[in-house]
Write a structure and sequence with these properties.
The structure holds two protein chains of two kinds. Chain A is mostly beta strands. Helices cover 0% and strands 48% of the residues of chain A. In chain A, the strands form two sheets. In chain A, strands 4-3-6-7 form a four-stranded antiparallel beta sheet, with no helix packed on it. Chain A has a three-stranded antiparallel beta sheet with strand order 1-2-5, with no helix packed on it. Chain B is globular and about 50 Å long. Chain B starts with a helix and ends with a strand. Classes of the chains: A mainly beta, B mainly alpha. At the A-B interface, loops of A face helix 3 of B.
Chain lengths: 106, 266
């Protein structure tokens, strides 16, 4: 079910600019399907990012966030070649982790 | 660099679309430019690439031998050079029609199954939509160059032109009613004049597109289908020659302009 994320992590000085695109339906629990029945709540609850295995970013997320969301944040003290992994977990226990290598900025 | 390109082509689009720049459209273009930096269409691009390489269907084959007009397996630049004539099918095909044909001939899928629910909704994105997003992305930054060499390609252009100007239906409407004069708009959306080359690119640019309303990925096939529906016309068959011909007319008119890849729609 969980589909790959698209992560971009580019260095600007010693700060990595991270942009994560996640594939998720993010159901609010308020939408009705074509049969008129409520589509059950299904949303990403938590997001964490790790730089070389150390947690640098953690967020609790609500169902108010859009479908296929984008998250952007900056990580201080990163170097080119560092490994950055991002994990999300949703309210159904579904999980996904993807990892990228931080690229030097242009 | 990328931003300069986007701005450059936006400026061209404005200059063409209206003498006096429409402030609402200008604001939306700004918004779209920001959204394009992280376009969820990329998620479908990744999924489409997986589907392209995966062995699937009754014949357990991948699409890697699919000929999109530049030889079997050549994806780069193919989208920008379609619709084109395909000898094996003996007709002009747009990119989606060709992908559907490859899924049938190479993988053994049935047309009836693919045409049953061909368009995306909130719950489901059909495989051809993800595939077309992948294929289209491989023509990012390339010039639109739909060929007009084969007699059937020229015939498709003429058929498409006839469809474009054909008035019918409950509203006595045609595509040309909205899209053959300058400076028309529908609500706040400026309407491009597809009979002019510098505006016809509007029919190609941004498709396939991720629609922010509802968060759904759509192909240009869906867009054409919806135009028919809005005109209260009978809807064309999925991946039919009607759609290919209309796309041939619109795309050839847009030849020479740079295609920016899968886009984002309001």
């Amino acid at each position: 079910m969980a589909e790959p994320m698209k992560i971009r992590a580019t260095l600007q000085g010693d700060v990595a600019d991270v942009r994560v695109l996640m594939a998720h339906p993010m159901e609010t629990g308020l939408r009705k399907d074509s049969a008129g029945k409520l589509v059950p709540l299904h949303f990403i609850q938590s997001i964490t990012a790790q730089l070389n295995g150390k947690t640098v970013f953690a967020a609790d997320v609500s169902q108010a966030v859009s479908r296929n969301p984008v998250f952007a944040f900056k990580v201080k003290g990163a170097k080119a070649g560092d490994k950055l992994s991002v994990t999300w977990q949703d309210n159904k226990g579904d999980k996904r982790t993807d990892e990228v290598v931080i690229r030097a900025g242009s | 660099m990328k931003r300069a390109l986007v701005l450059g082509s936006l400026a061209v689009a404005w200059a063409a679309a209206a003498q006096t720049p429409d402030p609402t459209a200008a604001e939306f273009d700004k918004f779209r430019e920001i959204m394009e930096q992280d376009n969820p269409a990329e998620l479908f691009e990744v999924k489409g690439e997986e589907l392209w390489r995966a062995r699937r269907g009754p014949k357990n084959a991948s699409l890697e031998q699919c000929d999109l007009g530049l030889g079997p397996g050549v994806v780069k630049g193919a989208y920008a050079q379609m619709p084109r004539y395909f000898a094996d099918a003996d007709r002009v095909m747009d990119a989606e029609a060709r992908i559907v044909q490859c899924m049938i001939t190479l993988q053994g899928f049935k047309y009836a199954d693919l045409a049953k629910q061909p368009f995306s909704n909130a719950d489901r994105t059909p495989d051809p939509v993800s595939l077309i997003t992948y294929v289209a992305a491989q023509s990012r930054g390339m010039k639109v160059a739909a060929p007009q060499n084969h007699p059937k390609e020229r015939a498709a252009y003429e058929t498409g032109k006839a469809i474009f100007f054909y008035r019918a239906g409950a509203y006595d409407f045609s595509c040309a009613s909205c899209h053959s004069v300058d400076d028309k708009r529908i609500r706040t959306q400026p309407l491009p004049n597809f009979t002019k080359p510098n505006q016809a690119i509007g029919a190609v640019q941004g498709w396939p597109g991720y629609r922010m309303t509802g968060g759904v990925m759509h192909s240009v096939q869906w867009r054409i289908n919806d135009c028919f529906r809005q005109q209260r016309f009978p809807e064309p068959g999925y991946a039919s020659e009607t759609v290919s011909a209309l796309l041939a007319y619109l795309t050839v008119n847009a030849n020479g302009h740079v295609y920016r890849g899968p886009g984002i729609k309001r």
